[in-house]
Structures are given as structure tokens and as C-alpha cells.
Amino acid sequence: MDQLLRDLSRVALVDRTLEDVLTEITAIARRGIPGADAVSTTLLRNDKAYTAAYDGEMALAADELQYERGYGPCMDAGRGGVVLRIDDMGTEERWPDYVARVRAETPVRSSLSVPLPYQGATIGALNIYSSEIAAFASPESLTAGLDAAEIIAVAVANADSHWQLGEQARNMRLAMDSRAVIEQAKGVLMAQRRVDAEQAFEILREASQRYNRKLRDIALGIVESTKGGR
User: Fold this and answer.
1) Which of 35, 65, 171, 190 could form a disulfide with 135 if both were Cys (CB 3.0 to 4.6 A apart)?
2) What pLDDT is recorded for position 2?
3) Sign of the alpha-carbon dihedral angle for 60, 66, 67, 73
């Protein structure tokens, strides 16, 4: 764990492209996170997800299976600001279409998706994959993932400051606005249904899939309904 922190602390952020920095950090994460066979970084821009960097082909394959459907652990972790762990793709029930295709088309058998924090919001997720069942059940894996995710978020912030002050900065604001609405909706659900943050996000996610609507739109409806009742 100490070696991972040392390696992450040596990553230069200034005057480099975001792609270069994320590629380096993702490779370090793959080497340093216990259980990791492949790692990727998903960024959310205007509610659209893409893999900004990856180390290991099965990470890219698993990511893209989620982008096709518009949901999955990496996208939901980024949108909801929650850590999402799958211990066994063979028994996972939260994303049935996704896990069925992952089992059939990739060697992935467990995963850990950690949100990327940015000024009180989240802008994506660090995704860690393994061909072994329950590869990320240890606290060490989560701690290492959180450390790497924090450095990635700093790198994105640095890139937006130095290289992408135009369109990407506007997209970042949109992503943060979307995140703020989701957080408000989670708060409403937590108060109304007496659930915790992860359970509240699960309610939002299930509603998004059930009604085939964007997560932000579901959240906005919940927030607006509380204003109407005042």
C-alpha cells in the first residue's frame, strides 16, 4: 500500500495532457491495488460516459458493455457517488443484462467501482476488475482504490484548468449540476423512506431502468415533487 501511495505521489500533473496522466495513474493502480487484473477510468461528461484510460483489455470490454445500455456499476458509481462492488458475476442481481454479457464475453468475475470526487461532486469512476471471484473483499483493496481515485480526480481538475478551459469546463459544470440534483433526490428518499445513501441511490437507479429515463430526470422529478408540496 505504501508503494502505491509513493508511485501515485510521483505522477506529474502540470503541463501534460489528461490522457497521458490518466494512462499513467491507471497503470499504477493496476499494479498497486490488491486483486486487480485490469483497471479503467470512466469519465462522465454531460451524462455521457467514456473510458479515458485503461490498463488491461478486459476492463475496456466490461466498460463498453455498460455504455451500450447506459447503466452498470462503473456508470452508477460515477453518477451516484457510491462505491459499488460485485463479488461474483455469477450471482449478482443488480444489473442482470450486464452481468450476463460480462460472464459470456469477458473473463471478469468480480469488480470494484470507486467514484471520482471533485468539489463535492463526482465526475466518473475508477473501475477495477478481476478474473477471480471476491477479489476485492479486503479493506486494502477499497483503501487503495480510494487513494487512486482521489489522484485521478485531481488530475482531471488540473487538466480542466490548463488544457480544457472551454467546452470541457462547461461539460464539467453540467456533470456537477446533474450530481447536485441526484444528491438532493437521495436526501429526499433518505428522509421519506428512512434508508441510507446507497439504498436511496439504488431506488433511483431502479426507477431509471424501469421507466427508461435518465437518472438525472428521475432525480429532478423527485426534487420538484417536494417543492410542489410546500
Assistant:
1) 35
2) 74
3) negative
Short-list 210, 217, 206, 195, CA closest to 94:
206
Alpha-carbon torsion angle 102, 210, 46, 74, nearest 10: -30
Q: What is the pTM of this model?
A: 0.70
Q: What CATH code would you report for 167-228?
A: 1.10.10.10
Which of the 8 DSSP states describes residue 55?
E
Q: Which residues pair with residue 46 across a beta bridge?
A: none
Q: Which residues of the chain have pLDDT under 50?
A: 163-165, 230
Residues of the chain with CATH 3.30.450.40: 2-162
Q: For domain 2-162, give the CATH number.
A: 3.30.450.40
Residue whose grid cell is 463498453 = 64
Nearest by Cα to 185 from 106, 105, 80? 80
Q: Which three cell numbers stand for residue 166?
A: 472551454
The Cα angle at residue 38 between residues 34 and 44, in degrees rounded to 5: 110
Q: Where in the chain is the domain with CATH 1.10.10.10?
A: 167-228
Q: What is the pLDDT of residue 10?
A: 85
